[in-house]
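re: ur question from earlier - yeah i can do the single chain one, its not a big deal. heres the input i used so u can compare w yours
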Amino acid sequence: MRGYEDIPQEWTRSSTPKARVTRASEVITKPVRWLWEKRIPKGKLTMFDGDPDVGKSVVTMDLAARVSTGRTFPDGAECEAGNVLIVNVEDAKDDTIVPRLKAHGANLDRIVILDGMPDERDGTRLLDLPGDVPSLKAAVEDHDTDLLILDPVLTMLGGDMNKDGEARKALAPLRDMAEETGLTIVAVRHLNKNVSLSAIQRGGGNMGLIGVARAGAFFAHHPEQDGLRIMAPHKSNLAQKQPSLQYTVVGWAIDENIGRVEWRGITEHDANSLAAEQLSSHEKTLKEEAMQFLREMLTAGPLPSKRVKAEAREADITEATLRRAREALRINAYKDGEGPWYWSLPTKDAQAAQHEQVEQVEQVRKTPNAETPYVKEDAHIAHVAQDAQAGEDEQLHQNGTSVSRVSEKHPDDCGCLSCVLPI
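and the output i got, formated as tokens:
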């Protein structure tokens, strides 16, 4: 019997396809381009996650209106005017989508709404991805589209979205289309029911979906103020995470039944703290007890993270509860040279900076809005966000530590769900 080594070399060469490779030195690098600076990249997929009643779809209409007119974004970032394609399978275009666009001052001539795809009975069916990607790409090119909104995207995806492989295969052609055309895609998802997960894990379907996206935002109600909602970045692969933004959904001056967004500046709440606020009363009590445990453990000074975790287990504090407490307290995580990872409470200077940022947020929130049926943002909102972020970064640089966030590179001994599950 002939072994592999006995097979003529020319046979193996002809029957085995060659992998496609590119020499790194031949790659022409290019900077990331942004639809919304450091929040929504061009030529990429961005995911919006949140419950049905937090105003995600209204925010997408505000986003569409800004792109159609070139009006600046809520944080003061510049916006280049472009064309928008909307695929919304939950809201009617005549009594909801177009009225909301009007409420936000959109240029309706630059916005196209996809009604569906023709079926075999001369009717219309829902967009089916990835099968309909070629038809969708043709529509994007026909209308010179800059922004595509898919709301909600899970309704359009075929296969079992709870399986990682099928989830990634369903979205990969959409991602590829975005990269080929330079199109910005914003896909909207509802949340799953598991409130014990971190924000990036709360979107419907498998984690493979958010894995394909390069950026994302988590939408939630403000935990302390009724009527106020928050858009908090929960994934940012291409830039430093930006501050969370507050907003309300109010009635349009021309028709109070039509909702429109009013932005209220930045907030200290991040995506994970908002996800944790959805815990039950019992879970919140456990989180508060874990926060007190960390304060008592770390008041005297930094300790190795392994020791803190070991003593937390002895105190019957689960890893998920410890993670939520750590994020709520903004525990510093740093490595001592080649030694172990340490945890420490924020310094007094860092805490003072946080309090100062809260005061700035409150001043922005109280700024009266212009009496107009459309939205108006003051330029100083962006300055507040930038100054607060710069102050925090400088404080971290001086301390030589890094604040624990979703974007933090977790230590090797970390056992949180963000590290256990693939992203």
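Residues 364-423 have pLDDT under 50 and may be disordered. not sure if urs matches, ping me
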